[in-house]
Amino acid sequence: MAILVKGVRWSTRPLLPVAQAWDLDARRWVRALRRSPVKVLFPSGPAAERKPGPGLQPRKAAAGGSPHAPRAQRQPPASVSQKPSTWEESGLRYDKALPGDRRLSTVMTIVKSRPFREKQGKILLEGRRLIADALKAGAVPKVFFFSRVEYLKELPIDKLKGVSLIKVKFEDIKDWSDLVTPQGIMGIFAKPDHVKMTFPETRLHHALPLLLICDNLRDPGNLGTILRSAAGAGCSKVLLTKGCVDAWEPKVLRAGMGAHFQVPIINNLDWESVPNYLPPETRVYVADNCGLYAQARISEKASDHGWMCDRQLSKLHKYEEEEEEVLETGAGKGWLPELEVQSYDSDWAEAPAAVVIGGETHGVSLESLQLAEGTGGKRLLIPVVPGVDSLNSAMAASILLFEAKRQLRLRADP
């Protein structure tokens, strides 16, 4: 019996390792499930998808389900496409500026500096309305920076072909904008040539034989306002002498409100070349209330009525002192042109006519007075009440230009 029991025990021993092997396989699958893989591959049947547990990173399953299979090579991240994008409606292509793109800053540095602007022959226009006016007048665009594609769709599509279009962040435009509320689009144009530009037909139809000459105007806001008044009055041309602020400076463009593309502007002229841009038999009138000979002529009229302010009288006294110095040196008389002075609302505008507006600080130049004397022009007086300083240059220009318009139209009507 003992022998039999020993036999049974001996025979049952080989069964223990088999049970242990099955138990190990089961535990191995349980541990595999606890690892929370992205895909679990069973010996038979489809793969089961599982979401990774909280705080765990998903793993990629081995290719083919075999533990000895090589891992799939990780694909490199797709690089940001630098190829131009396209919008279907127009077929135009534009670039997207990548971080660190210096094209916007480089261009802005050029167009915001007058020497660079004159050397490169480029100007900056900002805002959809101003850009649209420039395109309509035939200005040649070079580059557009915009923050939304919709801004380009508001412009004439045929004018944008062949132009570099670059989409940038609105924050980048805001950093370089001169506007309180940027409109999200800025255009770089070739400096317009008044000969090649196409001005509106309505403006040409209402143009008058009237020119404006700006003499040493240095305030951008005043010049922009004066250009706006010249366009509104129907001036046929605006001449800017050397010493004036650049007409294409951003502040002048903003104050002009599109007047740059309504009336021809000729910039940076010396006085010797000014007569070349005047029609034959043009009379030049100077808006200046002061002068040595002006005092003698209006002393019985303007000063008696209180039309001359203290500032004007001090300037007249300065003219007298300068004349005494000239006489002492033996330079002779007649150094200051003698011009007749009359009120601005008297009959003076004859076609063609030109009006000279001087800067507020220094007034009109001696060259302008000599030009007026040589053409038979006069000195125009705008009366002001005592205690009031002389008028702003932009206001004086508006008064004289629209008065000239009134007089010219009266002469034209039978």
TrEMBL record:
Signal peptide annotation: none
Keyword Methyltransferase belongs to the record: yes
GO CC annotation terms, alphabetical: cytoplasm
Keyword line: Methyltransferase, rRNA processing, Transferase
Bias type Polar residues, positions: 79-88
Pfam families linked to this entry: MRM3-like_sub_bind, SpoU_methylase
Region ranges (Disordered): 43-92
Family: Belongs to the class IV-like SAM-binding methyltransferase superfamily. RNA methyltransferase TrmH family.
Protein name: Mitochondrial rRNA methyltransferase 3
One record GO biological process: rRNA processing
